[in-house]
Design a protein that fits this description.
With 368 residues, the chain is mostly helical. The protein contains 16 helices and no strands. The two termini are 34 Å apart.
Length: 368
């Protein structure tokens, strides 16, 4: 069964509008979409802060990979308050409003994505334990290439010379970092650990690049079956299900690894003290929730590729903060790779611009 992605649905609906209304909709830029703006702001907060907090945990005495994985999803209960507020608001308008907006199939898809998110968090946690933030961030940029590939397979995302160029540039950057592997190895990290961190971070990028199109596809199928528009409440419901499953996945790992019993002792020996330890854990859970909620909003109100492009363009911010706070080395290879990442983003940007230009031209022709 063929389904429409959000961008395709928007294009079709605009073409069905009267000419004057269609022109007004087409003229509305992305930054005028309040939900997309909120999603972008959440992604800025989460993307800039989460790698720094997780790396701080490892640098000052933390050593629990499963705990680091759990922190990336444990903040999902924070969404219960706005979800409940939305329900009571709907209830005032209609007494028959359902408690949840998710369909059973969308719930099943969210459960599968949640398990993948748990595995992705574990892979990323291993990478952050052994890699500098700058190296990990640049490697994470390769998720744009993986997202492009999976979006082509799952949601039939159209490729252009610009998007292909972006994929090639990011892939070349990852290969360059691989050839220079070990040149920025942190003190106390063996070559084997560094290589393992390198591989797990690439694995996390690949898995995340698969998750985004899966979420886009599940939403598109939900909209096709129900005929209901995507609301931010639905986005939060999906996020809380994904977060709960990812948290359960990590909690099982912690139980097997006896991490819960080790937390009090680790807190006592933490570099920032016991209070600093728990504040760091709580802060990490909050900023990661901001990141993932913003990413889901960007997927549903834009596309999987748009979400990944936003994450990619925020990499220089993380790079600068890592150099300022951790005094990480930034050699020529990293500089070239960062330039390739930014170039890849700039190469992709005309793809979005061309899509909206085509939409406007189509509407203009229809009007004539």
């Amino acid at each position: 069964m063929e389904v429409e992605t959000p961008a395709q649905t928007q294009r079709r609906e605009q073409q069905q509008l009267p000419s004057g209304a269609g022109a007004r909709v087409a003229a509305k830029p992305l930054h005028r979409n309040p939900r997309l703006v909120v999603s972008f702001l959440l992604m800025v907060i989460g993307s800039a802060s989460s790698p720094l907090l997780l790396r701080t945990y490892y640098l000052h005495g933390g050593n629990r990979k499963w705990l680091s994985s759990l922190l990336q999803s444990a903040g999902c209960p924070l969404l219960l308050a706005p979800i409940c507020a939305s329900f009571f608001s709907r209830r005032r308008c209609s007494a028959t409003t359902p408690l949840f907006l998710m369909s059973p199939r969308l719930l099943a898809a969210s459960i599968v994505v949640g398990l993948m998110a748990g595995l992705d968090g574990l892979l990323y946690a291993y990478g952050m334990a052994y890699l500098p933030v700058s190296t990990s961030s640049i490697l994470s940029a390769t998720q744009l290439a993986f997202t492009c590939g999976f979006a082509l397979l799952l949601v039939r995302q159209r490729f252009t010379p610009f998007s292909v160029n972006a994929v090639v540039l990011l892939s070349v950057g990852a290969v360059m970092l691989g050839m220079n592997a070990g040149g920025d190895r942190p003190a106390g990290v063996s070559r084997a650990q560094y290589s393992a961190g390198f591989a797990t971070t690439l694995g996390a990028a690949a898995l995340y690049g698969f998750m985004l199109p899966v979420m886009e596809l599940s939403q598109a199928r939900h909209a096709a079956r129900t005929g209901c528009a995507v609301t931010y409440t639905l986005v939060m419901e999906m996020q809380i299900v994904i977060g709960l499953l990812a948290t359960a996945f990590s909690a099982v790992g912690m139980l097997v690894n006896n991490d819960f019993q080790a937390i009090p002792g680790e807190a006592q020996e933490f570099g920032f003290g016991k209070a600093g330890y728990y504040l760091l854990l709580a802060g990490s859970a909050i900023v990661y929730q901001c990141l993932f909620l913003g990413t889901m909003g960007a997927v549903f109100y834009g596309s999987a590729l748009l979400a990944c492009v936003i994450l990619t363009v925020l990499i220089p911010v993380t790079e600068v903060l890592a150099i300022l706070f951790f005094h990480e080395p930034f050699n020529g290879i990293k500089g070239i790779d960062l330039a390739l990442s930014v170039w890849g983003f700039v190469s992709y940007s005309p793809t979005s611009m061309a899509r909206f230009a085509t939409m406007r031209n189509s509407l203009t022709s229809h009007q004539i």
